[in-house]
Structures are given as structure tokens and as C-alpha cells.
Design goal:
By secondary structure, the protein is of the alpha+beta class. It is 19% helix and 31% strand. The protein has 11 helices and 49 strands. The strands form 11 sheets. It has an 8-stranded antiparallel β-sheet with strand order 4-5-6-7-21-18-17-15. A 6-stranded antiparallel β-sheet has the order 3-13-14-20-19-16, with no helix packed on it. α8 (520-530) packs parallel to α9 (552-567). The longest helix has 24 residues, at 432-455. The chain is globular and about 90 Å long. Its EC number is 3.2.1.177. Keywords: Glycosidase, Hydrolase.
Length: 773
């Protein structure tokens, strides 16, 4: 939201009271409180009829400092609020001298100047990373009496801003106006389903605005050297989070707002759906499922989209008996084929649904101020919206979900949750402005907790479209409605990378696009991208997404990349474990893994899948691709070709290939199974040791189905000697050298050929040594 008219003037009707002078700084039990004046005090008379801002500094976690700017403290706080970790503050240190007062938390030092000109500076060691200067903190009113609180933080020369949720606009947010307000706008506009008031910068720090309502950002837009954010009301709270790396910023941010849950391994397999408005019954579903099996296409999840329920009655949680006369039997038959089942739901209750009257009578639906049920015809005729601030409504909704799980459903696609009105009243008195974005958190939490209750920890997964800060705790999320073209494929990737830089560990998208039907070449290129994503789903709007509907080669491409993903599961599930433990995205923007490489700061058409695999999707029919390899040696996973990085490359690939490179000094774990994602990853694991440099080491971790570490293998090179240790399962595995030459001799294991060693099952602790030729 813009308040100024260029650098010098203020917009008509706007009054800005900005912090100009420090009046006092006091130590409190929580940290520091500063009083700042918005006009210079030249004498006693100047203290009258003036505005003061109270600025409170505290630290919930090391390296994280909260700043709350308050105009009038007498405003009644109405929820909802983000559920944040609250530390003891024992780690905080206060230092003071004649020039400044400082609060120190971990590697972050916040300095409040005592001089005549107000300033707050944030330091990492002796490096100033950002700050709030003269008049940056401000209380603002407009001509209608609306009030706002604003902050402006400095953006340095060459500093880039990322994140703010799943945004489909330019990957680097500098120059953009961003409103944190969930909307159902598809992937081709500035609107977003998942708006997160958190950004991270190339300087290795992040800023989280602790407000679930509308937060308006001007990122180097209104003032080109400032990241400005504002909210309506009388106070503004934000947290500065120091890294010093982007990965460490995200780890601390998710320690504050919640770590992603670990999805079950089966969710990483291929999902196939009925699509949205297509016609289908059990025979149609079986034709899809059997068709996949007949073509040797591994399929792991089948999803029933909206029309599993009768039209006009969404959501009633009842199978349309005209189409599915024996739903429980059908699900049993599908599960006997080795499939997991997902069904579509939303939190809206159409007027023709039997649940509407239940919800109306019991007060389970959001109401208008006059007490009527809020209703609209947008989406479902006469629909109401479940009020998840009412515990009884949550239990009512959850009860229907439990019945479906008992019937055989394993997951729910929690669609919608963005079109939440603000002219309404909630059961618990929540502020409807704040509930607009926060609603999705309550919605997904109810559904996720039902699955966790019924199926067990690490067995729950939703397929969600909307989110707010903290939503990463309830994976998986997908990108929403995209078109079936290369442009939408690219914008989807931008959205996923931005979401990954906003604390979300797992992300998916509709392979081939949702709207319209892709040409076969788009579908095949998207298959490679989709099956080298965290989660992989074939889904569309008005046409089926079975591969043979495109051409015969699409069948072969689906088979190739699905089997490749299944074989990568030992590696991918460890990457998933890192997401759950640290908050790091499975699909990582290049800047996240290579923060010191300036070329990586702007890359948005390639990504790292975990820390060892580089993926560059192809966005051209002819297979042309231009991508960047950071410095070091890289080995193509499919061809085995090794090249030197630190340069751009141009290539042409067929549909069975794309730039897919293993980073040097990597120990990559592959599995012995290529037709399913959930198996014993340690049994028969195949480790590839890639371009291990003298004096370096590489480690691979293999987890079991609970996410616990089952096997750890470490290789260390000194000259022509490679020492290998393995701790854990005691199961047989192989180790192959990649770009290391041939093996001259082996001590402690069996040599298979010139580059491969086999370790037989036996002791849980194994060590052996290789001598290179």
C-alpha cells in the first residue's frame, strides 16, 4: 500500500507520523522497550498534543528478534493469532553505552541509537544487514479515519528479496507490490492461494510479519531501497531472523512457526485422478487403473475428484449412489490392487446437501452480523461455510471424515479455503479480517489431525491448495489451477520455488496443466518435471490425464520417469526427512544451495532436488534448454557424462532426458525397487560416489518408513585411498564410483568390477578401504 507521492510528498488525505527521535529505552523482563517521538522535542510545550510510538524488542529463539511497534495500546486484541514458539529469553543479552542500547540474540544484534535521530540497526557480527531509519516506523491515518502501522527496512545494493508464499510473478520480488490476501486466482496472475507474510533475502536474513490479516508489501517499489510492509490498526509486529545462510533462516523460521510433518512414503508415488468435470464410474476408474498396470506404469494413489459426490450437494461426504452403488466394495477392490485412495473435499456446504440443515440448526456455519447463515451461489448454489472456530463444528466435520477413512480413504484433497468473506461473524468472536487468510489453517488442521488420529503419525497427508504461515505443518500442497502450456509450467515452478523459500517442505502441481488439454509434447516435458518434484499427480479439468490419451510415447515417458522416481526414493525420503527436521524444501531454489554464487540469485527455471540433484525442466517443444551449473564437477545421472560447472550450457534433449545432474562430493542412495515408492530402502541400496575430491568426504543417510535413520554410509578420500564406513541396518548394499577412475584393490569388501564394491548382509557396522588406480 502506497502512502507517499514520490520521495518528497505525501499522498492526498494521508497523514504520516514517523519515528524521528529516541525519547527513552528501558530494560524489561522480555527485552527492551523504546519510546520514540514522531516530532522533535524542542521544549516542554513540544510534548503536548504529540504522538509517541512504543517499540518493544524481544527474542523467542536465538537469532530471532521480535519488534512490536504500538501507537495506542488500549486496542482489544482479537484473534486468530499465529501459533508461535515461545522461548524463555534466557539467551538474550543486553548491552548499553552512551551512544546506543543493544539486544543480542544468537548471531543477531539489534542496536537502538540514543542520538537525536531515531534509528534501529540489525547486525550480524560487525556487518549491518538491514535497519529501520528516520521516519520508517510510522503511524498513518487517511482521510476516512482509517489507521495503519508501517515499517520500512533497508534493502542493500544487489540485495534480492524472495518468498512471500507461492507467488507466480517474478521469482525475485524486488519491484513488486504484494498483498498477503488469499485468493482463488489461478497461476497466471499476481493473486496467490498461499500468501505467507515472510520473506528472505540474498543477504541471509528473513523477516516475518506476525499478522494473519492483510499485510501490504512494497518491495523496492514505492521506495526502491526499502522493503515496506504495513497493516491496518494500531500496532505492527515483525521478526528479523538471522541465518547467516538462507537455509538457516528457514530452519529458524520454521522453528518459530512449525516444522513440516513427514508425509508417508507412499505419497511420493504417482497419483492419478478422475479429473474434474469428466464422466466416470467404477468401470471407468478400473479402465484407468488396469490400463496403467497393463502398460507397466507404476500407480500408487487414485484420487476421486468432486463428482464422487452428487452435483449441488458438495460437500455431503456421500458417494453418488447413481454412479457408485457399492463405494465400500469399490474401494476394497481398488486397495487390493495396491492403491491408496484420496477423495476431494472442501469446507463449503451447498444448500441441497443434507449437512446444510445440520450446520444451520447447530450453529456450525459462519453467520452474517444479523445472525443469518452466510450464503453465496459462487461455486455451490446457496452454500454455507463451516465455522472451524466452533469446536463442535470441527468435531461434526471430522466425524464424516472418520467414516470415510473407515471406508478405506487414505487422504483428502482439501480444496478451496481462499474465498472467505469478511462481513461475517465467527463463533469465537474472531476478527473476520484476520480469519480470511487464517481460515485455511483451521480447515487443513482438522482434516490432517483426523488422518493422523486414524492412520498414525507419519501416515497423514492432505493435498491442499490454500495456506497461511504455519500451513507447512500439514503437507502436501499443490500449485492450483494452471493452463496446459509451457508458460504455466514455468510459472508453476516459480510458485513452488517461492513457497519453498517460505518454509514449505513439500509441493506438487498438475502434470500437463489443469485447464484445457496440453499438446502431447507439453505433457511429456511436464511429466519429467512432475516426476522430479516432491509429489507427482496427473490431474486435469475437462479431460482425462491417462498417458495413452496423448500418444504412445507419453506412455513410455511416464513409465521411465515414474520408475526413476521410485528408484530415487532412498535419497528422496532422506530429503523429506530434512524437510521435517529443518524446514528445508525438497525442491530448492538454486540460491538456497549456492548462496555465494551470484548467478544463482536469480535462477527460476531450474532447482535442486535436495542438496545433490540439479533439475532443469525443458520448456520448449524442440527440447532446447539453457541452464546453469555452479562451479565444480557435475555428473549427468542418466548418461553418466561428467562436465565442469561454473558456466551456462545449451543442449537439446529428447523426451526421455533433461538436465539432471549429481553434484560433486555426493554419495547418492538409490533403491533396488523401481515400481513403488514404499519399500525397504536400505535392503539392496545402491550408492553412487560422485567426483569425490581429495581431502573431502560424503555421507548418505537411508531412512525407514517412519523417517528414522536406518543406514548411514560415509566415504572419505585421502589421495588415492577412499575409506568407507557404514552404520545401521546390516543389509547388503553396493557402492559404485562415479568419475573417480577404477579400483586397484579393496580391503574389507567384495569387488564386483572395476568401479563397484558389494557389501554383504551381516554386521550393522562395516568399514572397508578402496585404493584407486
Amino acid at each position: 500500500m502506497k502512502f507517499t507521492d514520490g520521495l518528497w510528498l505525501v499522498r492526498d488525505g494521508i497523514s504520516i507520523n514517523g519515528a524521528v527521535q529516541n525519547y527513552a529505552v528501558e530494560q524489561t523482563t522480555e527485552g527492551l522497550t523504546a519510546i520514540t517521538q514522531t516530532t522533535p522535542i524542542t521544549g516542554r510545550a513540544a510534548t503536548l498534543n504529540s504522538t509517541l510510538l512504543t517499540v518493544k524488542f524481544h527474542s523467542p529463539l536465538p537469532g530471532v528478534v521480535g519488534i512490536k511497534i504500538i501507537h495506542h495500546e488500549g486496542v482489544q486484541e482479537r484473534g486468530p493469532v499465529f501459533e508461535l514458539t515461545k522461548g524463555t529469553g534466557d539467551h538474550v543479552k543486553i548491552e548499553e553505552n552512551e551512544q546506543e542500547t543493544a539486544l543480542i540474540s544468537g548471531g543477531l544484534r539489534v542496536v537502538i541509537r540514543k542520538g537525536e535521530q531515531w534509528a534501529v540497526d540489525f547486525y550480524r557480527g560487525n556487518e549491518r544487514i538491514t535497519g529501520s531509519g528516520y521516519k520508517s516506523m510510522a503511524y498513518i491515518t487517511d482521510q476516512d479515519g482509517n489507521t495503519f502501522m508501517r515499517e520500512e527496512l533497508d534493502i542493500g545494493v544487489g540485495e534480492f528479496v524472495y518468498g512471500l508464499g507461492e507467488r507466480f510473478t517474478a521469482f525475485v520480488k524486488n519491484g513488486q507490490v504484494v498483498d498477503i490476501w488469499n485468493k482463488d486466482g489461478g497461476t497466471s496472475s499476481e493473486q496467490a492461494y498461499k500468501n505467507i507474510p515472510f520473506y528472505v533475502t540474498s543477504k541471509g536474513y528473513g523477516v516475518f510479519v506476525n499478522h494473519p490479516e492483510l499485510v501490504s508489501y512494497e518491495i523496492a517499489s514505492e521506495k526502491v531501497k526499502k522493503a515496506q510492509f504495513s497493516v491496518a490498526g494500531e500496532s505492527l509486529e515483525y521478526f528479523v531472523i538471522e541465518g547467516p545462510t538462507i537455509k538457516e533462516v528457514i530452519s529458524k523460521y520454521t522453528s518459530l512457526t512449525g516444522k513440516p510433518a513427514l508425509p508417508p512414503a507412499w505419497t511420493f508415488g504417482l497419483w492419478l485422478t478422475t479429473s474434474f468435470t469428466t464422466d466416470y464410474d467404477e468401470a471407468t476408474v478400473n479402465s484407468f487403473v488396469d490400463g496403467m498396470a497393463e502398460r507397466d506404469l507404476p500407480l500408487h494413489v487414485f484420487h476421486f475428484d468432486c463428482f464422487w459426490m452428487r452435483e449441488y450437494q458438495w460437500t455431503d461426504f456421500q458417494w453418488d449412489e447413481r454412479v457408485f452403488p457399492d463405494p465400500q466394495g469399490m474401494l476394497k477392490r481398488l486397495k487390493e490392487k495396491g492403491l491408496k485412495i484420496c477423495v476431494w473435499i472442501n469446507s463449503y456446504i451447498g444448500q441441497r446437501s443434507p449437512l446444510f440443515e445440520e450446520g444451520r440448526k447447530n450453529g456450525y456455519l459462519i453467520k452474517k452480523p444479523n445472525g443469518d447463515v452466510y450464503q453465496t451461489d459462487l461455486w455451490q448454489a446457496g452454500m454455507g461455510i463451516v465455522d472451524f472456530t466452533n469446536p463442535a463444528a470441527c468435531e461434526w466435520y471430522a466425524g464424516y471424515l472418520r467414516d470415510l477413512v473407515d471406508m478405506g480413504v487414505d487422504s483428502f484433497k482439501t480444496d478451496f479455503g481462499e474465498r472467505i468473506p469478511t462481513d461475517v461473524v465467527y463463533f469465537d468472536g474472531s476478527d473476520p479480517q484476520k480469519m480470511h487468510n487464517y481460515y485455511t489453517q483451521l480447515y487443513n488442521k482438522v482434516v490432517f489431525e483426523v488422518l493422523e488420529e486414524k492412520l498414525g503419525k507419519n501416515e497423514a497427508a492432505v493435498f491442499a491448495r490454500s495456506a497461511t504461515a504455519g500451513g507447512q505443518q500439514f503437507p502436501v500442497h499443490w500449485g492450483g489451477d494452471c493452463y496446459a502450456d509451457y508458460e504455466s509450467m514455468a510459472e508453476s515452478l516459480r510458485g513452488g520455488l517461492s513457497l519453498g523459500l517460505s518454509g514449505f517442505g513439500f509441493w506438487s502441481h498438475d502434470i500437463g496443466g489443469f485447464e484445457n488439454t496440453a499438446p502431447a509434447h507439453v505433457f511429456k516435458r511436464w511429466l519429467a518435471f512432475g516426476l522430479l518434484s516432491s509429489h507427482s499427480r496427473l490431474h486435469g479439468s475437462s479431460s482425462y490425464r491417462v498417458p495413452w490419451a496423448y500418444d504412445d510415447e507419453a506412455v513410455d515417458v511416464t513409465r521411465f520417469f515414474t520408475k526413476l522416481k521410485c528408484s530415487l526414493m532412498p535419497y528422496l525420503y532422506d530429503v523429506a526427512g530434512q524437510a521435517a527436521e529443518h524446514g528445508w524444501a525438497s525442491m530448492r531454489a538454486m540460491v538456497m544451495e549456492f548462496p555465494e554464487d551470484p548467478t544463482c540469485e536469480v535462477l527460476d527455471r531450474q532447482y535442486m532436488l535436495g542438496d545433490s540433484l540439479l533439475v532443469a525442466p525443458i520448456f520448449q517443444e524442440n527440447g532446447d534448454v539453457k541452464y546453469y551449473l555452479p562451479a565444480g564437477r557435475w555428473t549427468h545421472l542418466l548418461s553418466g557424462e561428467t562436465v565442469q560447472g561454473g558456466a551456462w550450457r545449451k543442449e537439446t534433449h529428447d523426451f526421455f532426458s533433461l538436465p539432471l545432474y549429481v553434484r560433486e562430493n555426493s554419495l547418492l542412495a538409490l533403491g533396488s525397487v523401481d515400481n513403488r515408492p514404499d519399500y525397504d530402502f536400505a535392503d539392496g541400496a545402491k550408492f553412487g560416489l560422485y567426483s569425490l575430491a581429495d581431502g573431502t568426504s560424503a555421507t548418505a543417510t537411508v531412512r525407514d518408513m517412519t523417517g528414522a535413520v536406518e543406514l548411514t554410509v560415509k566415504a572419505e578420500r585421502k589421495g588415492n585411498t577412499v575409506s568407507v564406513t557404514a552404520e545401521g541396518s546390516g543389509k547388503a548394499f553396493t557402492l559404485a564410483l562415479k568419475d573417480l577412475g577404477a579400483i586397484a584393490s579393496v580391503n574389507g569388501a567384495a569387488q564386483v568390477d572395476e568401479t563397484t564394491v558389494k557389501v554383504d548382509a551381516g554386521s550393522p557396522s562395516v568399514s572397508f578401504t578402496l585404493t584407486l588406480k
